[in-house]
Write a structure and sequence with these properties.
The chain has 73 residues and is an all-alpha fold. The protein has helices at residues 6-13, 17-30, 50-62, 65-68. α1 crosses α2 (17-30).
């Protein structure tokens, strides 16, 4: 940004100086592509099909947790 210091850039963007430092470092080592925003959240196709959800619900309703040998019970 026109020879501005990292502290000045951080103030303009309302982020920490450390964040700007990480971005600069990443840019220097990996290039501009590494700074592009990446998709967040659940990956596509991560949902159960309706029949799968029904099968899981039936199994849970018809059994006690100890019968299912759930590790958290």
């Amino acid at each position: 940004m026109d020879g501005k210091k990292q502290v000045e850039i951080a103030e303009i963007l309302n982020v920490t100086r450390q964040a700007v430092g990480k971005w600069v470092s990443k840019f220097r080592t990996e290039g501009e592509e590494s700074l592009k925003a990446k998709r967040k959240g659940r990956p596509e196709g991560g949902k159960l099909l309706p029949w799968q959800a029904a099968q899981i619900a039936k199994t849970l309703i018809d059994h006690h947790p100890e019968q299912l040998k759930l590790p958290f019970y």
